[in-house]
């Protein structure tokens, strides 16, 4: 949808909520099919602009910055609008039938009057499907679980989870803050980044908070104590890694199984191992062919992190991504098991199934030579390395158990 900004005459691009955000607290928005954007943090921008070459394959491509403002349409729907990168560039047009836009607008309609904790959203489905109603139940803080029911022509209901609600909650919190703390004509800067899940039909995503320390050097004493407590009470202390969010496509039920950061904080070491296994399980079988490419990429990342002196990736996350739609489903549904295995091992260079390992969230990353740093460190990040080593060891145990 192309909109006209109220404060100026420039054409803008209506941003969509990003429905594959599984973790974090900062709202991520969809700019176009291959680009997402998020509120700009100067430290994170500087990190991307000075990124070591060896790390570029493990981070989203940085595409610059953009100006964003809050906008309200004639029906009172709030959204964020970005000015195009270039004045003469044809802006990306968001369809009014977009599922993300329909969900967000319906969410606003149901909460504008009552402010009820139960938020009913309307999911935009293909014409051949019945509409699905999704109920988001906020729990403590911004935690949410989604429970949806799909009604067929006869009124029968079947449970179905069609998208991960976490991004909508982050988006809602962000818009609420903008609306209450800033004037409507205020301009905000956003980072433009590669949408790393765009190549996937059903992106399965594991968001892992890495390291044994999560607070930045600039954290207040109160915030420092809060983060240290979270680490001490979770697998961050014992493993150097904890689950911050997850979605895994269940082929038997045709929906995503979703987990949020509150689930991840409660896991024991054994629970963390079981959750990793669950992330690789599609509801019918373990995707064992994914383990080798995941391990190869993690080991390559480990070598890169070990070579980066002075970097500390406090509070950053690591994404593991693969497609919930198996290669055999994309080619032929009648392949024999041996043929399906051959297809699975030929879907990316080197004969391995396609997976992605990406580092994200660098708002608290510090390194020698970065601007205005009062604290610098020697050698590679020990907490991040500790977490990677344990993650690799657990995945190797799963691999050997097959």
UniProtKB/TrEMBL annotation:
What family does the Swiss-Prot or TrEMBL record give for this protein? Belongs to the inositol phosphokinase (IPK) family.
Gene3D superfamilies cross-referenced by the UniProt entry: Inositol polyphosphate kinase (3.30.470.160)
UniProt keyword list: ATP-binding, Kinase, Nucleotide-binding, Transferase
* A GO molecular-function annotation: diphosphoinositol tetrakisphosphate kinase activity
Say if the entry is tagged with keyword Nucleotide-binding. yes
Q: Taxonomic classification, please? A: Eukaryota, Metazoa, Chordata, Craniata, Vertebrata
Its recorded name reads: Kinase
Q: What EC class does the entry list? A: transferase
- Pfam name, any one: IPK
**Its GO CC terms?**
cytoplasm; nucleus
Region annotated Disordered sits at 330-350
E.C. number = 2.7.-.-
UniProt-listed InterPro entries = IPK (IPR005522), IPK_sf (IPR038286)
The UniProt entry's GO biological process terms, in alphabetical order, are: inositol phosphate biosynthetic process; locomotion; phosphatidylinositol phosphate biosynthetic process
What is the originating organism of this protein?
Answer: Microcebus murinus (Gray mouse lemur)
